[in-house]
Amino acid sequence: MDDTPYLLDPSHWDWSVAGSIPHLLLAHLGYTALSVLVGALIALPLGMLIGHTGRGAFLAINAGNAGRSLPTLGLLSLLVTLMSIGFLPVLIALVVLVVPPILTSTYAGLRSVDPNAVDAARGMGMSGLQVLLRVELPMALPVVFGGLRAGVLQVVSTATVAAYTGLSGLGRLLVDGLALNDYGRVVAGAVVVAALAIALDLLLGLVQRRVVSPGISGRGLGRSRPARPVAESPLDAGVL
Amino acid sequence: MNSVLDYLRGNHAAVLDALGQHVVLAVVPLLIGAVVALPLGYLGVRFRWLYQPLLNVSGVVYSIPSLAVFVTLPYVLGTRILSPVNIVVALAIYTVALMARTVSDGLRAVDPALTEAATAMGYTRTRRLVGVELPLALPVVLAGLRVAAVSNISLVSVGALLGVGGLGALFTRGLQLAYPAPIVVGIVLSVLLAAVADLLIVALQRATTPWTRLAERRS
Amino acid sequence: MKNRLEGTMMNRRSMLGLALAGGATLTAAACGGGEDPLAQETADSGGAAEASTVVIGSANFPESELIAEMYAQVLEGEGVEVQRKFNIGAREVYLKALQDGSIDLLPEYNGALLSALVDGGAPEGVSTPEQVYDALQDVLPEGTETLQQSAAEDKDTLTVTAATQAKYSLTSIEDLAPVAGELVCGAGPEFQERYQGLIGLEEQYGVTFKEFRPLDAGGPLTIGALTDGTIQVGNVFSTDSAIETNDLVVLQDPKNLFLAQNILPLIRSSKNDQAISDALDAFSAKLTTENLTQALAKVQVDKQDSASVAKEFLTANGLA
Fold first, then answer.
1. Does C181 contact chain A (CB < 8 Å)?
2. Mutate to test the interface with A, among B48, B63, B107, B164 (most CBs of A within 10 A)
3. How far apart are CA A233 and CA A101, in angstroms?
4. What pLDDT score does C29 carry?
5. The C144-146 sheet, strands edge to edge
6. Which CATH architecture has domain A20-218+228-239?
7. Which of B182-191, C35-44, C117-126 tops mean pLDDT?
8. Residue ranges per structural domain of chain C
9. A226 has pLDDT over 60
10. pLDDT of residue B204
11. Do C221 and B175 touch (CB under 8 A)?
12. For C158, phi and psi rounded to 5 degrees?
């Protein structure tokens, strides 16, 4: 092979070549999107339930660190050994990874809502569900987004383990590069994964600006924000 | 369950070795990372314009997959490819990425009234930092340390893909033999280790910041 | 608020404790950075200090690890201090580890090693174990040497299920050429760029698969993918008991792409001495395909740990 860095060689970006970077990128995005979707479908309702009722708070508070302590490589190895190869073991392992930050941040977001606002909403005759969806959730959104972004960041970086069990995704560049002692390929993998993570985080940041009411984020109100929102960066939710 | 016990019976020495290696590979970078993060986090407060870049760089660093860092470091550091130094440096970098910003956040959250009081009492900048601001920031800093500790303990196992991964060796072995027992043992020990580390840091926090409990009780 | 201030000011003593704790942390970290905390693990710090220790490595599959363990116990029996660094990775990685001094000794397969060291595969006319061994001597990485090879052979094979074999009436790799366009091949990631892999298959047999699935080096992923139909052709080691258990069929290799694969120790010359080479030669003389296959089945099928299987093997063969 020649001296062109792996990342810059046009043939590695050629869509018509199976296993080229665009294919791996697409597969990686697919794994990420599906895992985050399934994870959010589990964690959001559960987090809202716990945050709204206050029951099960222990679970929500400790889910974050417990989830983080579970080694994904081990979980995936176990699932593959018990189930056989395929996407399902990878999906389960990544969902287990993404549920805790979303769950913890949803709970924390709901808890951070000013009780006066909730009381006021009740006083206006809103039902429990209305209070949750119209008052608590919108006010909790900045924090919820923090957890979501942290989760996405973790999944993008961890989805690389899929390659270890014979699947596709950007992890192929890492695992194959390692097996072939091709350091350029590993670097290419690292750069593309990091770039993808940044791009997705920026995208979610934009969505967040769109979705969070200006009345809550303090944007465009012509006054400085009273305090830094709890979750400005994806790393925040981790610390919760 | 029985096969797990059988496995432990036949392999307890190897498992203990793996556990020991895991502890060293997780704890050493945690200490190094914490020591580096403290001044870095302080700079993020002292020079406000540094805070945002610090945040961004931390985010980027944290999004690079650990396997890639483990494999790439020998070329950067000139270490041997199987050297545990690679794992230690990689995890130290993650620790810094996680903790530098929590140090900044912790320092920024200190009530200005307290720092002003210290200044009025004639404290120099350094003495104020060491005697007032850092101690008050400690709960936040230690919260960051907890996250970093737990995250390190989980990440060490990825090193097994290069033959240096503490308990991760049990994962690769189990996968190679289609044998769940070592994997279960590895996961359980790794999670327990993380729990112990977490509890130790909480205990450290209680011991070093007695006033937080005092304040809780009085309020 | 006032309480907090008082608390801070009044806790000089605990501050002192904190500072001391911080100092201890710094010292510990400095030790960590300066003098390698895993000194006995690395030999990074100079190497000369531990010149007597032989670091034994292995590839990332159970057979390699088992033989490496046997080497380790043989040397320990001779009073040599050894250190185990098993499960490193594929040949591309562990050869580098051998050259940079991370490891000193590991079990190798003569044909695969030759093929890896020669551009474009083994030279014409090299096929018997002796020819391979001789050819190997000219191309070994500088500073390394091989000891006597054993009679034990473990070849890379292309293996299919009985059903696939019947469907395409396959007996040798040659028969794959016309149908390979419909088949998916699975092997370790390194297989796709090795001469004893996709490159040689295409050059020597004109076999080009529809797709390549990077899995593991002849391990459960490959076997699992073969039996569940994810792949139709897998790179499996000939000593693997899974071939029999799963009723798999090994395709013949008339052109000897996968050369004689006798197991032999590859060692850094600086660590080799008479005692070590005598001990390992005595061991290799006893190792055969049969007794290796049996021992390996104890690890792979019965899930015994490789240390006790190795010990049992050495005792049974009068080597311990």
1. no
2. B63
3. 13
4. 38
5. C82-89, C54-59, C105-109, C263-268, C144-146
6. Orthogonal Bundle (1.10)
7. B182-191
8. 50-153+261-316, 156-250
9. no
10. 92
11. yes
12. -100, 125
CB contact at 8 A, B67 and A174: yes
Query: A195: which 2 tokens?
Result: 């770039």
Task: Please report the domains of chain B, with CATH numbers, ordered by start residue.
Answer: 2-218 (1.10.3720.10)
| Distance of alpha carbon B102 from alpha carbon B45, whole angstroms | 11
Say how many CB pairs under 8 Å bridge A and C: 49
Confidence bin at B71 (pLDDT 50/70/90): confident
**Tokens found for residue C283:** 């061991």
Neighbours of A233 (CB within 10 A): 21
pLDDT, mean over chain B: 90
Residues of B in contact with C105 (CB under 8 A): none
Mutate to test the interface with C, among A85, A90, A185 (most CBs of C within 10 A): A85
Distance CA A53, CA C207 (A): 64
The H or E element spanning position C234 is strand C233-237
Please tell me the predicted confidence (pLDDT) of residue C106. 96
Chain B residues with CB under 8 Å of A233 CB are 55, 58-59, 101
CB contact under 8 A, A181 and C93: yes
> Measured on CA atoms in the order A131, A136, A141, A144, is the torsion positive or negative?
negative
Among the listed ranges A123-132, C114-123, C189-198, C272-281, which one has the minimum average pLDDT value?
A: C114-123
pLDDT per position as a tens digit, B109-145:
888 898 889 999 999 988 988 888 988 999 899 999 9
Chains that touch B (3 or more CB pairs under 8 A): A, C
Q: What does the pLDDT read at residue C37?
A: 37
The domains spanning C50-153+261-316 and C156-250 adopt the same CATH topology: yes
| CB-defined contacts A:B, below 8 A | 148
Residue B102, pLDDT > 50, answer yes
Question: In angstroms, what is the C-alpha Rg of chain B?
Answer: 21
Neighbours of A56 (CB within 10 A): 15
pLDDT tier, C51 (very low <50, low <70, confident <90, very high otherwise): low
Predicted local distance difference test score (pLDDT) of residue A12: 85
- Mutation choice for A interface testing from C193, C194, C235 by most A CBs within 10 A: C193
Where are the domains positioned within chain A? 20-218+228-239
* Alpha helical stretches, state H, chain A: 21-53, 57-69, 72-83, 87-111, 115-123, 128-130, 137-158, 171-179, 183-211, 214-217, 234-239
Q: Is the domain defined by C156-250 classed in CATH 3.40.190.120?
A: yes
Concatenating the DSSP letter of every residue in A170-238 gives: THHHHHHHHHTT-HHHHHHHHHHHHHHHHHHHHHHHHHHHHHS-HHHH-TTSSS--SS--S-SSHHHHH
**How open is the CA angle B112-B114-B116, to the nearest 5 degrees?**
70
**What distance in Å separates residue C6's CA from the closest CA in chain B?**
9
Report the run of H or E that residue C86 belongs to, with start and end.
strand C82-89
Instruction: Characterize C219-249 residue by residue with b for buried, 16 or more Cβ atoms within 10 angstroms of its Cβ, and e for exposed.
Output: bbbbbbbbbeebbbbbbbbbbbebbeebebb
C-alpha closest to that of C62 among C242, C236, C306: C306
The CATH number corresponding to C50-153+261-316 among 3.90.1150.10, 3.40.50.720, 2.30.40.10, 3.40.190.10 equals 3.40.190.10
Which residues on B lie below 8 Å from A165 (Cβ)? 175
AA identity, residue B36: V
Sign of CA dihedral C229, C234, C239, C240: negative
| Sequence letter at residue B20 | G
Q: Please report how the helices B66-77 and A171-179 are oriented relative to each other, as an axis angle in degrees rounded to 10.
A: 50
